[in-house]
Write a structure and sequence with these properties.
- The chain is built from 14 helices and 18 strands.
- With about 450 residues, the chain is α+β, with helices and mostly antiparallel strands.
- The chain has two domains: about 170 residues, no CATH class; about 280 residues, Rossmann fold, CATH 3.40.50.300.
- Helix 6 runs parallel beside helix 14 and helix 7 crosses helix 14.
- The protein binds guanosine-5'-triphosphate and magnesium ion.
- Guanosine-5'-triphosphate binds next to helix 7 and helix 11.
- Magnesium ion binds next to helix 7.
Length: about 450
Amino acid sequence: VYNNSPGSSTLNAPLTSDLTEEKRKQLCGLLGNVELSLLYKASVHGYQASAFHQRCDRQGPTLLVAYNRSGYIFGGYTSVDYTQSGQYITDEGIFLFSFQGKIPVCIKVNSGYNARIDDAGVPNFGQQLYFCYNNQPVVYNSGSSAFSLNTATMYGNDTQLSECEVYKVEQSSAVSTEEKPWRNVLWTAERKDKLMEMVRNHKPLMTSVSRVRILMIGPVGAGKSSFFNSINSIFMGRMTSKAMSGSAGTSLTTQFRTYPVKDGREGKPLPFVLCDTMGLEEQTGAGLDIEDISSILQGHVPDRYKFNPMVPFQPDEQKASRPASLQEKIHCVVYVIDATKISLMSDKLQEKLASIRRKVNSLGIAQIVLMTKVDEACPLVEKDLQSLYVSSYIKSKVQEVSSRLGVPVSCVLPVKNYSQELELELNCDVLLLTALQQMLHFADDYLDDVCSMEDKPK
Ligand SMILES: Nc1nc2c(ncn2[C@@H]2O[C@H](COP(=O)(O)OP(=O)(O)OP(=O)(O)O)[C@@H](O)[C@H]2O)c(=O)[nH]1
Ligand SMILES: [Mg+2]
């Protein structure tokens, strides 16, 4: 219960949030391991800038949530205090959001623009979107280009607000740390060398298979291509970016690519191949298709095949009639999932993943979940990767992804891919190599299984 002293009796009444529990969770999911507490509610405190500042100044990071009469819920987050300094604010964390369907979609500030001006006026984002404009229940778009926003999708072009709330965003104290790490990792150079040595010397269980084929599947932008780049970088001893990675609305990767990795520039090929696919999208007819996955699993799809979401892969008839050799098939499937998006996963996407799992299960292929972007998900981990296995938040995310995908917790491997670094970093390498080693082990289990089936008298 809030005690909003000093003020009239209405101001002392506990504030109730208009956010549903689900939406609150989704918004928290965008911000990491945080708690929201309501500071200001325009219908109670008034739409005047002064009322806003009285409650929201010097409160640290805040999230503004506006509701309009057409039912849109939208707003923005800023990580920098309001102080009425009159200064332009740079804030890399700032974003606007709007619920589209059930999912909050974010828009980041365009580079080269100020995040906002910190004056005595009403809250603004990029001096473009003003909430409580003219001290009225109104949202106003000045037309500046700080944010590439579409007012029709963001708020249905309905500028009349029915409510405007501002929440204080705090790192959740519940996210405390575990007493003991829940997995043991040796963060040492010796360990890294040992892992690299084990990967180099790995011999797939069957002699007919010279290289383990690992398939990466996951939503758009989850970090599939980045994982290959990261592993390749480790063995090349420098940053590489052979696979195109980045962010776009739809999948950046549009071809099926099978990437061998060499042990250094002049080195021998390593005993595995990472297979990169186009991202999954929730709609049917968009992104990677289940039929395509099925063809890939069975080794029918050639390197550089260009995916067409409208038409699944059609193997030529000769090839389709004979089963591919074990070497060409997939031996381990890796579901690549962005740690920051787990709570935001839509039912449709979850259902798509479930049907892929059923397919992979039916073929008996080994499966692992690679949980990427642990650095973005938890500030503790961003500061120090070694705190990964003491972060309760990461632990909860691992449990969540495990239950959403229906895989055991032991099969979920959190990693941080290389994204903007220029140099390799030991802790990162240890995690990435541990994940790779696990994939090789799982593939071995699969091959062992195939082996024992072949040995059986018919
Ligand atoms: N901070 C951080 N960023 C990451 C990580 N992994 C990937 N990224 C970034 O996320 C963005 C998307 O990564 P990609 O590797 O292109 O994702 P993808 O799964 O290949 O995406 P599509 O090919 O579009 O389906 C890039 O900007 C990466 O730099 C990570 O572990 N941490
Ligand atoms: Mg990609």
